[in-house]
Specification:
The complex is a heterodimer of chains A (111) and B (209). Helix content of chain A is 78%, strand content 0%. Chain A is mainly α. Chain A has one domain. The radius of gyration of chain A is 21 Å and the shape is flat. Chain A starts with 7 loop residues before the first helix and ends with a helix. Chain B is mainly α. Chain B is built from 6 helices and no strands. In chain B, helix 1 runs antiparallel to helix 5. Chain B is elongated, with a radius of gyration of 20 Å. The chains are: A mainly alpha (111), B mainly alpha (209). Chains A and B meet through helix 1, helix 2 and helix 3 of A and helix 1, helix 3 and helix 6 of B.
Chain lengths: 111, 209
């Protein structure tokens, strides 16, 4: 632990800096939350209004969902912080498998 | 390192969840688990999408007859907000504010419980009003398996977070339980990630056709 060598004033400076940084982070979290709410409302309006053809609505909904999941992973689950290379490698591999599974079931396999 | 050591907000590490070897292992292991869960849910989604509206006869309800958007919208808002409250909890954990962390996790549990109550109401409504039961069609089996597995995850998450809140109530925050809280919050966000795809692929696309 590098902290132990620091003298008292340094400690406080670092503490103040950290407090500020987490506050800043929290603001980003709040902004991403509001964007997620906005995207959700947009998705429900796209369907609820009955104005748009399915050919437009379905890709649009999938796009909104992907953006929302990006916010969840990178902000809410802190994946944008350092030390997330391995976790994100796992997740992207899983997303690839997930994508292929869904694609195969919807195109080659049918009942 | 003595994991039960008492800290002050000044001496508390910036990333308490990965400050110990145990925490690091939990962190990496849990993400690996979440990747596995992603694949599990993908297979359930794929099955649902392939079997959507596969019904034995015309009297059986289809996706567009069943789902009600206002209810799903409410459930989505509740779960999304509970995701934010658990972010607040982790924010306070990193600032070594045990009481506020417990409070925000408790709010998360309350929101999760109301989500679960709405889901139970929804399933009950489908069975009672539409005769849409687990065995009534391939569509209904796939639907209940997918959404029910998500509901089971919510239930498990509620039990897990409640257990953490109760178990550590008198203990306070230390480097032993900080990774536990962190990992539980990751699980909770993952539940919300799955729900984003459920409300999109099942309910909204189900309404479109």
């Amino acid at each position: 632990m590098g902290n132990e060598q620091l003298k008292e004033p340094d400690f406080n400076v670092r503490f103040e800096y950290r407090r500020k940084k987490s506050k800043e982070e929290m603001r980003f979290q709040l902004i991403s939350f509001m964007l997620m709410i906005f995207l959700t409302i947009l998705a429900f309006i796209a369907v609820g209004s009955n104005h748009f053809p399915p050919k437009f609505v379905i890709p649009f909904l999938l796009l909104l969902a992907s953006v929302q999941v990006g916010f969840q992973l990178y902000y809410f689950m802190h994946a944008s912080e350092k030390g997330h290379t391995f976790p994100m490698t796992f997740m992207y591999s899983a997303i690839l498998v997930a994508f292929v599974t869904v694609l195969v079931f919807m195109t080659i396999i049918w009942w | 390192m003595n994991v039960t050591e008492k800290f002050t907000p000044q001496t508390w590490p910036e990333h308490p969840e990965t400050a110990t070897m145990e925490g690091k292992n939990k962190f990496i292991g849990f993400w690996l688990f979440l990747a596995g869960e992603t694949v599990l849910f993908a297979s359930l989604f794929a099955t649902y999408l392939a079997l959507k509206d596969s019904v034995p006869d015309a009297s059986h309800p289809l996706a567009k007859d069943l789902f009600s958007l206002p209810l799903v919208f409410l459930m989505t808002m509740i779960l999304l907000t509970s995701s934010l409250t658990s972010v607040y909890a982790i924010y306070h954990m990193r600032n070594y504010n045990f009481k506020k962390m417990q409070l925000w996790f408790a709010i998360t549990v309350l929101l999760g419980a109301s989500f679960l109550a709405l889901e139970i109401y929804e399933f009950n409504h489908y069975v009672k009003e539409f005769g849409f039961t687990f065995g009534s069609s391939a569509f209904s089996s796939a639907y209940y398996t997918l959404v029910g597995t998500h509901g089971a995850h919510v239930t498990f998450g509620l039990g897990w977070i409640t257990a953490l809140i109760v178990r550590n109530a008198k203990r306070g925050l230390n480097l032993y339980n900080a990774p536990k809280y962190y990992v539980a919050s990751l699980y909770w966000h993952f539940i919300d990630v799955v729900w984003v795809f459920i409300f999109t692929a099942v309910y909204l696309i189900g309404k479109v056709g």
